[in-house]
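User: I want to check something. If I give you two sequences, will you return the structure for each one separately, not as a complex?

Assistant: Yes, each is folded on its own. Here is the first sequence with its structure:
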Amino acid sequence: MGKNLEDKLLDSDSDTVKWVKVDNEKDVRKGLDEQKYYGAAIFEKDFSKHAMSQTQKVVMDSKKQEMQDKVKSGEIPPEQAKQMQSQMAKSGASQDIKVKRAEFKTITNKGANMQASQISSNVLNGIGDNLNKQITQQSLDTLEKQDVKVSANEIEGLTNPVKVADKQVHKVKDHQGNGNASFLMFMPVWISSIVASILLFFAFRTSDNIKISHRLIASLGQLGVGVLT
């Protein structure tokens, strides 16, 4: 999931925003301090795993309960149930799943340039909002295909799987004329939100909604993506 999104951002040929991959958050912050980037998007190391953890837990709990009900009803013989439990233990499927929200951090460099940082802020906010919307829809589609019912106390975790942390650095300096000195031409900020939506659409369109375990195995290493204009 995260790697797919990263590739879409880096392959984007948008005239409004240029993305570059940075190895770690320390280098991202150094680039912001040196005014190389107008903003940054930082995905945590286990973003994909955590983003789908609630969905995976709901599915696994549902399947376990389904098996227990079939054993009680006699539909599954006790001996067969033991074999199934043994297979689940070997594969690790019987282990409890730790649910945790995925973390996505955005940093906007307010001191670099007012209009550029505003565009960057809109792009980053759009990505954060759309991440939650897209992952939520992906989770609901998965649960529907697995024929899993969701309880009321599980809804919140499914509909808000990503924790978005926004931060601003480097306040606008007095001599910068509120950041407008080098950027007098109007640029439509709404384009940035459209860019974010389109990139996320294509990133999630190619994601497999059924094979949960395949997506959860691959984790995205911590990276920073600088926003240049």
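And separately, the second sequence with its own structure:
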Amino acid sequence: MPRFFLCHLKILPAVPRLFVVLSLLLSAGVLAGCCGAVSCDCQDERDDALFFRYSTDTTGTGTGFRAAEVDTVVVVRYVHPDDATTAGNDTVRLVRPRATAAATPVIIDNATPFAVRSGRKLSAYRYALLLPGRQRLRPVQRDTISGIELQGKLDSDGCCTCYQNTTKSLLVNRQRVDAHDPTSQDEPVEVELRRR
């Protein structure tokens, strides 16, 4: 408690002083209880995440993929220029069950599928998604992801403060794509990758 307040408490008789202190503690408890009883379920772990799904439309345009072609995806994170002398590119091979591969998006987030390096967010890097195919000498498809732009804000209602993504765009094969949820509910917006 501030000194000023304590000094004034000394001149009060003992019983009223106890009443004042208990009243202040009770008030603080009641005010803290307002937010203490609120569960903050922000669900903002994946607000900045990028979601990619391979097209399975093999009829008509022929730009889709078969499940056997998308069950294994190689994700490359290109080294940040500041790390070029100390580290190489990061590579992860995602092997997914063939039955669910076409329905399961490939997710790139700040800590998925790569660990955070030097505190940089996913927008500090360029990426490539490769479908290795069966021959493994030359990928069936290579999609490049660059120019990632992420912006967000902290939204507060008095008790809870949650992060909300406000801008999410990227270049996919040099084409600008807006991956921000137009409803601002932070729902995933999947970028569809087609055969080229």
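Because they were folded independently, the notes below concern the second chain alone. Residues 50-193 form one domain. The longest helix spans residues 14-36.
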